[in-house]
Amino acid sequence: MASAVGVIASNSPVYSALFLVSCFFQSAILWLLIEAEFLAIALIVIYVGAVMVLFLYVVMMMDNKVIETQQKFSPILPFGIGLAILFLIELIYAIFSSTVSITPSVIDSNVSNTELLGNAIYTDHLVAFEIASLILLVGIIAAISLTLHKRKGLKKQSISEQIDATKTNRLKIIKVNSEEKV
Asked: Which of 10, 38, 138, 151 could form an S-S bond across to 15 if both were Cys, CB 3.0 to 4.6 Å?
């Protein structure tokens, strides 16, 4: 809980990302507690190992200065507080009025969690899995495009100039007398 508060309360985007890494590790521990080892390792490898590294790369490449907090509040703050209260009320209602009894399904002991998860993802939830993959792909493309901005003095490769190059415009011969200092 403290890490989640740190994500939104930190002034530095880098510290927020590090707090988010801590949240991912805590979520992985919850997966371990319910004996979903594959999901715990996948959460650490995929989110911490790939997504957060990409996020930190983008944050550091954007060359953002730490924005100092101002004394006045955002005009949408009351809306955000109201929305948070609404979500809290829904959460409390869902926890205390739950009449659904959860009974474990019969699982073959010869089949591992990973195999059951793979069967569920690639049969029952294939479309949702593909949509999630496309969303991640769009996120990666957006992160790369955010880092590409024009700077003065940036050297770029021009393929057409390289193809059109000839011996006369590529080589320049300068005569220097050996006694003359350059």
From this structure: 10
